[in-house]
Amino acid sequence: MHVEFDRDTCVGMFQCVAEWDAFEKDLNDGKADLAGSTEEEEDLFVVEVPDGEEFDAKFAARVCPVDAIEVYDDDGEQVV
């Protein structure tokens, strides 16, 4: 399972930060950062979800008010 985070879309509500420790506040930019991620395209960050953190990753995606976070299963199907 992996997460794709569109940082350009992020509006800095930081609800994801409260739900999953992989997200951190960047108060300088007023946006969240996805720790340990790789920038696959401009402002599109991707990270593998560690075992046991799947629920938190999905919940972080669900609470994002601007849908900047997407979760994909191991087959590449979007689950959130």
TrEMBL record:
Q: Report whether Membrane shows up as a keyword of the record.
A: no
Which keywords does this Swiss-Prot/TrEMBL entry list?
Answer: Electron transport, Iron, Iron-sulfur, Metal-binding, Transport
**MF-aspect GO terms:** iron-sulfur cluster binding; metal ion binding
The portions of this protein that span the membrane are none
Query: What is this protein identified as?
Result: Ferredoxin
Q: What is the protein's species of origin?
A: Halorubrum salipaludis
